[in-house]
Write a structure and sequence with these properties.
Radius of gyration of chain A: 25 Å
Order of helices and strands of chain B: HEHHHEHEHEHEHHEEHHHEEHHEHEEH
Radius of gyration of chain B: 28 Å
Helix content of chain A: 10-25%
Distance between the termini of chain B: 84 Å
Shape of chain B: flat
Strand content of chain A: 35-45%
Strand content of chain B: 5-15%
Number of strands of chain A: 26
Oligomer: heterodimer
Largest sheet of chain B: 2 strands, antiparallel
Structural class of chain B: mainly alpha
Strand order of the largest sheet of chain B: 1-3
Order of helices and strands of chain A: HHEEEEEEEEEEEEEEEEEEEEEEEEEE
Distance between the termini of chain A: 18 Å
Largest sheet of chain A: 4 strands, antiparallel
Structural class of chain A: mainly beta
Chain lengths: ~325, ~400
């Protein structure tokens, strides 16, 4: 942009010095405006190409904790819960067995290690009663954390006779939605932990690795199959989008307010964007460790303030991008 | 009149060319023994005496006075091999490396397709040394030395260079009713290679050599009367150590269907005691294709990594990328001096970009990079100034 602006200014200042003549002045102005127009068009093309390369998203801040010594930092963030009511981000740190809270400016507020009892927490939600629900991989449990009562209760989940291995977690309309690693399906549970619906990955797929709720639909990502499915409330497939041509190792997804689908590519450290019909739009971010780069990212979510949050597990942070 | 002139001119030209070739032919074979180039199958340019199609008689950049690099020279005529795609899912290693002469003799051979050995099998076994030459029970095409009945020699969309999907490939010859030949099998017989070795075995029907303990005594230990698939919980009832590993931050319990164990393991018979469906690298590659592609394509990858399980905890791990430990613990298993004489790493050293502990994988990426020592960036400056900005 800077270089283009300087070129434009030079053209405007560089006037020929000669005797006044109306025809000459008109012609000179025409030529000057024509040249300026060409430069302006070139600058606009250059600017639009830059936007296309980077996408419209810009790094804003990281959810991170200053490290003074080992054991006091965010080591392996795996889950993010965005609390609209309290304007908080909660980050689940699986390796530190901790839950970190941040305000929406990214300032670290608190680190919770409830009773030092969590064992490989992976994902969390907070319900309307202020209870934290945490998927604990190390216990294979959906664990209830009541901070007011200082009470922690583990709940082993069963589907028939089968033990459930919980993974990603969501909460909507009073129901828990959990990916069961043993089947690759999404289980819908009521408050008594009874499974009221199973949304199985269609035959031949590799199992769901992530899901999100948007506009009354459930969107689920089959990682190995590299397919996005949109289900209606009855669990019937409404749409199927193949992303294999653009994404190397799809690991998470979210749907933007404009209906665009954002897919996280874990291997490439990239976010790949598709329109609602599944057509590829653009991609941004790359693999690495510097600011705005991703290393084995885990999850992607939109917050309530128009920002895109990427859990950058390998770099021990959550990167927040704004438009 | 003009036509007659053309005919005469063309005849003179053709005659000159023939004479020139004959002269060239004669000249080359005045030193090179002709009978070395006259086996049953002769490369067309050799047969025509067109030595200069491939060689420069005076001087060349390449060994054997050939006009171009071997692969480029071969593909100049055998364009079909290149057109078939040298970027397909699986490209045979010699093809990928431009080593056409690893399998083919460029002049003449006793075998079809100018193979260096007496048949396909002999040629293949020169590199594929893990395969036995003969088994107690040998698959007929393998016994006949006809590897290409199942495998493409150059490239394929399938792993292991198969001509088509494994079951379809088997069924292209074995067209009989599988239910009859698999009595009491609890489900529709499928995934032939999970039980049968396509080359040979010491068991009848090419059943693989290692049997799952419960399978030795029957089906009832795992299968119930419903005849449905065995669920993962059933496997974990016996394999408790696997359950403990799967209760990690990341695990490989991630498959559609009722039992993700059988994604990698054969529940009945296999070629090794861990009952992998195939070699472990092939099993991993089924899903992690891009990792393997990167490893192959990049100029600098970790040499001889051996099994994936040397570094990765394949059932489940609490470390990034399902490693067996952090980026120092895993590497220092082999690289004993790492961190003692080189850049500081470990619990007291932090990467200023992220605040994370410095480990070997902060700078190195063993699955392949463009830089020496598998460095993530150019090592004389670009990588260092990522952190050492003052320099």
């Amino acid at each position: 942009m800077g270089a283009g602006g300087i070129a434009l200014r030079l053209l405007v200042l560089k006037r020929p010095c000669r005797k006044f003549n109306l025809h000459d002045v008109i012609m000179a102005n025409c030529k000057r405006y024509f040249a300026s127009g060409i430069v302006l068009v070139l600058v606009l093309i250059w600017a639009s190409l830059s936007v296309a390369a980077e996408g419209p998203w810009k790094w804003q801040f990281s959810l991170n904790i200053k490290k003074e010594k080992l054991g006091n930092q965010m080591v392996l963030p795996t889950g993010l819960y965005i609390d609209k009511e309290r304007e908080r981000y909660y980050v689940v740190d699986a390796a530190s067995n901790a839950l970190h809270s941040f305000d929406i400016q990214g300032n670290h507020l608190n680190t919770l290690k409830p009773g030092d009892q969590l064992k490989q927490p992976y994902a969390m939600v907070r319900d309307s009663r202020d209870i934290l629900w945490v998927v604990e991989k190390g216990r294979n449990s959906l664990t209830e954390v009541d901070l007011k009562e200082k009470k922690i209760v583990t709940h082993d989940l069963k589907f028939g006779n089968r033990e459930v291995f919980p993974d990603r977690l969501g909460l909507a309309e009073g129901f828990f939605y959990i990916i069961d690693k043993t089947s690759g399906g999404i289980l819908k549970l009521d408050q008594q932990f009874s499974i009221v619906q199973e949304i199985a990955c269609p035959e031949g797929g590799g199992g769901f690795v992530d899901f999100t709720m948007s506009d009354g639909s459930l969107w689920a990502l089959d990682g190995v199959g590299k397919v996005i499915y949109r289900f209606d409330k009855g669990g019937v497939v409404q749409k199927k989008i193949l992303v294999g041509g653009e994404v190397s190792f799809p690991y998470a997804l979210d749907v933007g307010t404009g209906g665009q689908i954002y897919v996280l590519d874990r291997y490439e450290g990239a976010v790949v964007v598709f329109d609602g019909a599944g057509s590829y739009k653009y991609r941004f971010l790359t693999k690495g460790h510097s600011r705005g780069r991703l290393y084995y990212p885990e999850d992607i979510q939109f917050d309530y303030w128009g920002r895109l949050c990427v859990i950058d597990s390998g770099n021990g942070r959550v990167e927040i991008f704004g438009r | 009149m003009k036509v007659a002139q053309y005919v005469v001119a063309l005849s003179v030209l053709a005659g000159s060319a023939t004479f020139a070739l004959a002269a060239q032919d004669k000249l080359c074979f005045s030193c090179h023994d002709r009978k070395d180039y006259a086996k049953a199958v002769v490369h067309q340019p050799v047969a025509k005496g067109e030595c200069e199609r491939c060689h420069n008689p005076h001087v060349a950049k390449y060994k054997g006075l050939i006009q171009q690099e071997v692969a480029r020279l071969c593909l100049g005529c055998h364009a079909d091999v290149g057109k078939a795609g040298l970027d397909r899912t699986t490209v045979h290693k010699p093809v990928r490396e431009g080593q056409c002469l690893a399998c083919h003799d460029p002049h003449s051979s006793a075998s079809k397709a100018l193979l260096r050995e007496k048949d396909q099998k002999e040629t293949c076994l020169k590199c594929h040394t893990a395969l036995a030459k003969n088994y107690e029970y040998t698959h007929l095409p393998f016994a006949k030395g006809e590897c290409s009945v199942c495998h493409q020699p150059h490239q394929s969309e399938r792993l292991q260079l198969l001509l088509s999907a494994p079951d379809a490939l088997c069924r292209s010859c074995h067209k009989g009713n599988l239910t009859d030949s698999h009595k009491n099998f609890p489900a529709k017989p499928a995934s032939c290679l999970s039980c049968h070795n396509p080359h040979g075995s010491s068991r009848k029907a090419l059943v693989k050599d290692f049997l799952h303990e419960p399978f030795k005594t029957g089906c009832g230990d795992c299968h119930d009367a419903s005849g449905g698939p065995v669920k993962v919980g059933k496997c974990l009832e016996c394999h408790e150590e696997v359950k403990a590993q799967a209760m990690a931050i990341r695990s490989h319990l991630n498959s559609a269907g009722e039992n993700s164990c059988v994604n990698c393991h054969s529940p009945h018979a296999a070629d090794g005691e861990k009952l992998f469906k195939s070699k472990i690298e092939q099993v991993c590659r089924e899903c992690h294709r891009d990792t393997f592609k990167n490893y192959i394509d990049k100029p600098h990858s970790h040499p001889n990594p051996g099994s994936c399980a040397n570094c990765h905890q394949v059932h489940g791990s609490n470390h990034l990328a399902m490693l067996k430990g952090n980026g120092n613990q895993v590497c220092s298993e082999c690289h004993k001096t790492q961190g003692q004489f080189t850049h500081p790493v470990g619990e007291k050293v932090f990467d200023p970009r992220t605040g994370m502990m410095m480990t070997c994988v902060t700078c190195h990426y063993p699955h392949g990079t463009d830089y020496v020592f598998n460095l993530k960036l150019e090592g004389s400056k670009d990588l260092c100034i990522q952190c050492h900005r003052g320099y």
